[in-house]
Amino acid sequence: MGFWTIYGAFLFLWKNFSLQLVAFKDFAGSIELRGSTPALGDSQARMLPDAPPANTLKGKRERAILTTLLYHGLLREELCRIQVKDLQQRSGMQHLCIHGKREKIRFLPMHPMAQRLIDEYLEAAGHRDDQKSPLFRPIALIFLQGSEQPVPPL
After folding, report:
1. What does R_g of the chain's alpha carbons equal in angstroms?
2. What's the pTM value of the predicted model, to 2 decimals?
3. What is the pLDDT along the chain (154 residues), one digit of tens a residue?
């Protein structure tokens, strides 16, 4: 996955959703250069989902978002379009139904860590049964009854 996609999503979460990162400076300061393009190393990619706190609803949502971006190579807009009904069981395996550019639909097998973090987030947020709801909602709107606003794309 491109560095700028992850970095842009990271900054967006940090600025707009109060993502508190103690190690953000260390993380951003240790970016590798491969040729002239900045890239995440394997160890940095593994650290990324652990940056948000795991004990808050906002932290659970951010961990699920970062892991989904990291392991599935989605565009930010594709991530924001995912609805709860797009978590589908196909051939005995959990898949994400992704609605991409030009009405293109593709099914991606879910990475086990992404599946676990999304399940934790949905359990905490309480909108697992609302199939037409966006998967990732802004935290302030989760508590408003009938809220169906997705996280806005960058």
Report:
1. 15
2. 0.69
3. 455 556 666 666 655 554 444 444 444 555 554 555 666 777 777 888 888 888 989 899 999 999 999 889 898 889 989 999 999 999 889 999 999 888 899 999 999 999 999 999 999 988 889 899 899 988 765 555 445 555 555 4
Domain boundaries, the chain: 3-142
Say if CB 57 and CB 124 are below 8 A apart: yes
Helices (H), 3-138: 3-16, 24-29, 42-47, 57-72, 76-81, 112-125
Q: How far apart are CA 86 and CA 113, in angstroms?
A: 17
Q: Is 3 helix (H, G, I), strand (E, B) or coil?
A: helix
CATH of 3-142, one of 2.120.10.30, 1.10.443.10, 2.60.40.3710, 1.10.287.370: 1.10.443.10
DSSP class of residue 134? Answer: B
